[in-house]
Amino acid sequence: MWIRMENSQALTPERMTEFLSAGIDFSGQSRAERYAWVQSTLAEQRYFAMGKKQRGAVRERLAKVAGLSLPQISRLIRSYRQNGEIQVHVGAPRRFLVKSTREDLELLIEVDRAHQRLSGPAIRIPISGIDGRML
Question: Residue 92: its pLDDT value, please?
């Protein structure tokens, strides 16, 4: 079941503690939507002008509604304070290092054909002229 909250930023700190004590679980749809909601809530509540107790209630509410952990909310708040916005960071995919060169592969094909397609462990012998590496 999906519930969309409108004007959820307009809660007072007292109402926020009542809201947090309710046994309701939430989760966001996408990371970008959750981050945008956290950012708009921080701006609407004027988070950095609040007292410590009020900020704690806002942090708990953000964690509960966004479905994020308190340390993650702390990181998002820090990012908002430093940059003025919360951005979704997409990292580059990790790639495996290429250890074999084209010449190595050609030599391996040549050995494979010469030995009538033996299995890999059967052809692991040192071959001179390939910088002392094993095939």
Answer: 81
